[in-house]
Amino acid sequence: MRHPILFSAALLGAMSLAACERSGEAQVNRALQDVNVVDETNLNDVMLTVGDPDEAVNYFSRASANDPGRIDLMRGLAKSLVRARDYDRAVAAWTDVTDHEDSGLDDQVDLADALIRTNQWDRAEQVLDAIPPTHETYERYRLEAMVADSNEEWDNADSFYETAAGLTTRPAGVLNNWGFSKLTRGDYSGAEELFLDAIQNDRDLFTAKNNLVMARGAQRNYDLPVIPMTQIERAQLLHTMALTAIKQNDVTIGRGLLREAIDTHPQHFEAAARSLRALEDNVTN
């Protein structure tokens, strides 16, 4: 008479064990899902920063196709297209992101950036104008400054550049852009100050060094500034200074600067040598 009881007890034990096993499997599956999410997030970050841009485009294209509608993957694709300099497709990708129900104001800023890269200034301005003024970010004001520059609204450009520079701990790039804006307006001394500020914030920013030399040369100041530079950079800056002098008909000074650039460069400086040959041929003719 005990057999049914033993059988029931055994059955209950087996059911309990099965339930525990199923519970354990569920926990393991959840844990694996969490790990996969973490791994995917890390991989996404790698692709967006140090990965090859074209590989990143392929990765996010496949991921978006496999999981359509995921806005993080859509953003990843759009950012990767910008890194790959495929700006037309980047505009389309950012447009898709901004049409998503979970998109935010930063996505609109990124769309405006892509539009500027494709010279769609009017549309970029429309996108920026639609963003509430309370959305105060470095990227937003950097783009606002560029749009104001394109419209030759100099006061607005200066205001936006100043605001952008104050919203980042790495202002060298925007200071360089602001300086170039003043350079194109003919405010050479103002440009010189901004390029110096940019270099103080990033001593490796060669673009600012080159622009600084052009600003000084435009004022017929042909002495290299006292700034950090390598020997190769010194030769390149002398070359830029020489071309600036020649452009202003200070040919003798320009010739001397070209020769100094050739002598300064640790290797053969073909660009400077070519400029010197062209200058001497022109003078001879």
From TrEMBL:
Keywords: Signal. InterPro entries: TPR-like_helical_dom_sf (IPR011990). Gene3D superfamilies: Tetratricopeptide repeat domain. It holds the Pfam family TPR_19. Residues 1-19 form the signal peptide. This is Flp pilus assembly protein TadD, contains TPR repeats.
